[in-house]
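User: I'm designing a mutation panel for Helix-turn-helix domain-containing protein and want to avoid disrupting the core. Could you give me a predicted structure to guide residue selection? Please restate the sequence first so the numbering is unambiguous.

Assistant: Good idea. Sequence first, for numbering, then the predicted structure tokens:
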Amino acid sequence: MDPVTCRGEHPREDGQMPEGIGSDPRRRTSPARWRVLGHPDGILVYQARCIVENHGWSAPAAETTYKVVLGRAGVYRRRVNGRTAFADATSVLLLRPGDEMAVSHPLGCGDSYTCLEVDAEVLARRPDARRWFGGTGWAGSSDGALDLAHRMLAADLRRGLDHFEMAERLHRFLGRLLGFVSPDRESPDVDLDRAVGRRAATLAAHRQLADRAREVLAAGDFSIGLEEVARAVGASPHHLSRVFQRVTGTSLTAWRNQLRVRAVLDTLAESDGPPLRVVASEYGFADQAHLTRVVRAQVGHPPAHLRHLLTA
């Protein structure tokens, strides 16, 4: 993906990625700028941040490994096997060998993510192996608990684990993730597709409207109001709210709070981050108490405790 430079937040000293695993088109651009968190027993875990110089689409790249991509911050568009979708900090993507993906960054702000690439031989030895093989990948959104588990795992890997514990923790996380993205778990889009009397064009228009609203919310201005979001996407607040709930399964307010809390978690993970009252103001909360209530409701812990957990 030539227009985009991807770099890890803390490159390894030798500036190299392990060879022989993975096909991420972004990694081919500048491997010295990636942060590898661990590589035990056929599982590669790394974090990256993409800085955008061109908003256009990358060339499609075929996947060669089983891969899980978990959003951390920023936004991008992805085209997987010909289907285009919007992705933000809530996004989870499961790719299988043969899936073809291209990406673009319409807002120009790039994105950061954690990726787990797993050898087929490793998956074949798992008791849930049959659920990993066959078909194409899966895309959806994580809830607060899964997102926090992902971030805490990354923080522990940055602190340092031996390969035995690292492998065990990663296998546990893969099991939890597979339970969350099970093929038996239908997304709101599936229910929407089955609605009697709905035309395909209407369904596509609703998804596009919801994606445009997600782009506006993900732009980072957490002081924006519902009227402004609706105006930006060319819909009435009532229509936008109803369609967004139907497509995503959650309200605009709840989605905005998910994005805010993920941004807060990124800030809390900084060892020299600002005081909580400043964090509350920066992300549009009424005060520190409001920040605490919303974060606790999303992930089950107050910000002060999360700062301790996530600071590497």
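For picking mutation sites, this is relevant: The mean pLDDT is 81. Residues 200-218 form the longest helix (19 residues).
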